[in-house]
Amino acid sequence: MEYPPLSPPCPWLLIAEEKEQKSHTRVFYNLFDDEFYNFKLPELAGKKCIGTSFGWLLSVGTNFQMSLFHPLSKHQLSLPPHPYVWEVTHEYDHDCIIMVIHTNYKTLAFTRPGYKAWIDIKCDSRNFYDITIYKDKFYAVNNHGDVFFCHIEDDIAFAERIAIYKETEDYIHRYLVESSGDLLLVSRIQGGTHYQDNEFINDESEDEDESEDENPYVTLGFTVLKLECSTELKNKNEYEWVNVDCLGDQALFVGGNSSVSLSASSFNGCKANCIYFTDDNFDFLLATLNGGGYDMGVFNMEDGKIKQHYLGESLSYFAPPVWYSKHTHMHYVC
Fold first, then answer.
1. Taking the CB of the first residue and of the last residue of the chain, which one, N or C, has fewer CB atoms within 10 A?
2. Are the CB atoms for 44 and 325 separated by under 8 Å?
3. CATH of the domain at 275
4. Tens digit of each residue's pLDDT (9 = 90 or more) over 110-128
5. 8 Å CB contact between 88 and 77
6. For the sheet containing 25-30, what is the strand order?
7. How far apart are the first and last CA of the chain?
8. Which domain holds residue 16?
């Protein structure tokens, strides 16, 4: 088969590779034509790929060495090593900023090409879930759903809270996604055996005999909000959250380090008003029977139903499947 260039117009799944395999070949899956594509990428052998941004892959080696790798040009950009990186995103520019969520406290930091270390971003919050670029600026969201605007000037940086999420919800993962010019807060509701006190637990599971160890967590649904403001950013009190019940022609692709919104009508088989998601519950990967990668699917905003988008098995404790796309904003800022 003559493979297309590794610059897909729609997100592909980068299939999991176990840590011990150290293969020179990586497998990508196109949901919409149901095809697998193998690419020789020895630069990624034995490395954990934790996200993509503008066609770049963020990889972490066993020695915690981090790098950005572009599969088409084969160009690599070395980053300062770090043992605890959760999310990353970057600007599409040679003089870029790479921004991460790091440490056990999930705080913010950034670096630039050629820097030897990460620089902490001052903030009165921690436990951040996602970071993204919106209108050429960096934004972050914490576990409560509060959104922060990140000011970076030379080597001085701080994060300013600009929107407060007033609802109280547990067992939620948050994503920030730019869609049709708006900044969306996408909240992922999870249940499962690790959430015994969660009111969202699905008591109507069709598989009552399923082992508890097999599903310590499972996605039950999503909610979507839009950040609205009537004035410029400096008037921070003008921001508010507005419920979004319909995405129109847009389809959202969310997952650790790789989230994007695309026009569904541009791709045969892509479903509008749906949220495609990967398994990114990194906190509980070791509690699963065979690793992460089973909690993936498509959530329909209209009827609330979830269906699988990948019928194969791609499990890994090391690096579960992630989206690969030239559109996605990784959670590092380069």
1. N
2. no
3. 2.120.10
4. 998 889 999 999 999 999 9
5. no
6. 35-40, 25-30, 12-14, 322-324
7. 35
8. 12-324
